Amino acid sequence: xxxxGKKKKTEETAAQPAENKQNNSVTDExxxxxxxxxxxxxxxxxxxxxxxxxxxxxxxxxxxxxxQAKLAAQKLLSEPYAPQGMTFFMVCDEIPLSAIPETEGNxxxxxxxxxxxxxxxxxxxxxxxxxxxxxxxxxxxxxxREYVDEISFERVExxxxxxxxxxPTDPDEDASRPVRRFAVLTDAKGIEDMSDPTCRGMxxxxxxxxxxxxxxxxxxGKDPEYFSITMDSLMTSEFxxxxxxxxxxxxxSSLSFAGVRSKQDPDTPFLPVFTDNKxxxxxxxxxxxxxxxxxxxxxxxxxxxxxxRDDHHKGFLVNPGGPVTITIPTKLINDMVKTKTFKDRxxxxxxxxxxxxxxxxxxxxxxxxxxxGGPDIPGLQKIIISNPTNNPEFxxxxxxxxxxxxxxxxxxxxxxxxxxxxxxxxxxxxxCIIDCPEDVFQDECKGLVPVMKPFMKSIKTIQxxxxxxMADKETFAKRSKWLYSKLPL
Length: 489
Known about the structure:
Blueprint: H1 2-77, E1 88-92, E2 107-112, E3 114-118, E4 122-127, E5 131-141, E6 147-148, E7 150-152, E8 155-160, E9 183-186, H2 208-215, H3 217-220, H4 224-235, E10 238-247, E11 253-257, E12 260-261, E13 269-273, H5 277-285, E14 295-300, H6 301-307, E15 315-318, E16 326-329, H7 330-336, H8 340-346, H9 354-357, H10 369-372, E17 383-386, H11 392-406, E18 413-421, E19 429-435, H12 441-452, E20 462-466, H13 473-479, E21 484-485
Parallel strand pairs: 13-15, 19-20
Antiparallel strand pairs: 1-3, 1-9, 2-8, 3-7, 4-5, 4-9, 5-6, 5-8, 10-11, 10-14, 12-13, 15-16, 17-18, 18-19, 18-21
Helix pairs in contact: 2-4
């Protein structure tokens, strides 16, 4: 028995290493599998962490861009540099077709509101090539989907009336989308330059659409649709630039333009232009432009494009004094002047010769603006402004004009001054400044002519000016005397 038991134990002992070897082999294989799974898990976790970090960075960048846009809008809307009549604006970045308005026929739009808006306000909607429509804000919803009567600087949903937006003329047109993406809603009416038929958009005295689009450039600059609309907006704008105007011996003038360099491209000179008289005024008050360049010159986009591509500029900078600055290099200008929008507005080759674009001779030797003072510009002469003399002629005009203004509900104030070229001080004309709504300005001018003409014996010419379109009108009014005012001065 003892031998049997010993033999069995010996056999078990002999069999044990083979079994252990098999167990060890399985353990090693599982260890490899487990290690591989652990590596995969670590890799998945690392990728998930990387994705989360990318998402966090994207959210952070988006929030930063939004903060910058909000800050730019706050600066733009602050007094005394707010464009005329502008207390808010919104770029409509979402037109939800699935949203159902409470009133049939109304339109739902969404966007980031800049400024303050109230329900019931009549406002303006800009879209297309400088087209402007009047609509009414009927409902306001905040980001929590709550209806409110007033809201400031938030993501909003607005229900607006169709106003005078045109109805579709073609059955195939999308009647449900009268408002296009990136349309601009604002209470700023803007000022159209009626003397420049090529500038269908807003004049340099106030271009609300372009200003609003530029404020959102950081958010949507990479969006092809937004970029295209912004470029169209620039092509329907006027610009103001600091210049030095020198009087020539022949009674004409020469212009010298500035050249500035951006932080991103310190070796390249650009033409500085501003979309608003108030913005250039603010920049000049802070020393922008340098000695001698303290005057201002208003240009169409064609003129801007021509000068920005001369021998001394490689493009132009829009609003270099802020609140939002963008660079339009020569290559982009070359593409813009080839577009149908540009050709329809200005004609083929309108921006190819700076001298011709400014009304000069077209002589290429005169295109070296900074080098020799610029082209020989007809009509740009220094003007002397003075008060009229209280002679019998003017006293009769004054009496007739006061009587006329008293019967006209739309004329708030009126002023008459004298204009004469410095080179011909005796060649005077009456300069009649009228403070009235823009839409009745032409009618009031036509009404005043027969009132004044019978008494105009020594001076035969009248020039009319709408007060709201004047640069620095507040300063001008302080230095001059109103002939007529419905309110005490």
